[in-house]
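Re: that chain you flagged

S.,

Sorry for the slow reply, it's been a week of failed gels. I finally had a moment to sit down with the sequence you sent. For the record, here it is as I used it:
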Amino acid sequence: QLAMGVARGGGITKYVPESVIAGFTTGIGVMILAGQLPKALDLTVPAGLNTVEVVQAVASGIGGTNPAALALALGVVGTMHAAPKLHPKIPSALVAVGGATAASQLLGLSATPIGALPSGLSAFTLCMPALPAAEALPSLCGTILLIYAMTSAETLLSCTALDRLRPTSYKHNPDQELIGQGVANMTAAAFAGMPVTAVIARSSLNIKLKAHSRLPSLVQSAFVFGSLALYSDVISAVPLSALAGVLISSGAGMLQPAELKTSLAEDKYNLGPYLVTTCGMLTMGMAEGIVLGCASSAAKHLVQQRLLAGGGDWVVQAAESRLKDPPPSPDTRKEA
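Prediction finished late last night. Pasting the structure tokens below so you have them in one place:
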């Protein structure tokens, strides 16, 4: 990622069709909504399910809903929407989650909390890198390339989608994004951490709260580090349903009908790649949906080009010939 950013390879996303980006935004919004339903209802669903399967699992287990968790989630969603109307500078997410946590503790609600977290600076242990065995390199390289491709694609597409959601003229720098993420992944690996990627959920929350700079990202990073190092006991008491309410509010804000209208205004047949991208993400996964969406957009383009080069030209020529050579009038046929 670092090398690709330095080599200015981040601009590859400009070749992703508009309809695929619109479908990606919608798909991510629905995935966030569906993915948070089990936490909002305090239900347990198997891991590794796609979005459609998660919804089916929630529907089948809806009878086991925890009323306290549902009430907290609804309270957070309501606060997220009402607080900005009272005053635009109210940190609605912080107020909503803080209020839900306080209510859960004071009223003794049975909502499931985050639970135990690593505590203190000892949780951050510097690890020296080690080379793997030679026989493991082939399979390991394939896995590395797959993770690199998926994290880079999600980052760049998320940034492109956020540019559309952001009501300002700011546009992200894809090369800078890759460089930053490459450095972040190298740092995470030095502490035995997992690879990271830019995610659209928290960024869309920043947009919802009218953030216009990089300061929220720095504040969030400092807050996460400080929470784990100093206040892990407090953070562990936050109900999962409260956090689910925040993400549900953010995911709902990503469902933008204007995106589809703009795409269809350019070409009504963009509906095909849009639906393929969205449905592919919901039924198979994000990467599969993006690939299928790009493939369907390319197929649509090829078909349109073939029609223009073939039948389309013939229709134009035939119309022109009819204008140049009008049919003879009845009187002309009689004289003939």
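What I noticed first: DSSP finds 15 helices and no strands in the chain.

Talk soon,
D.
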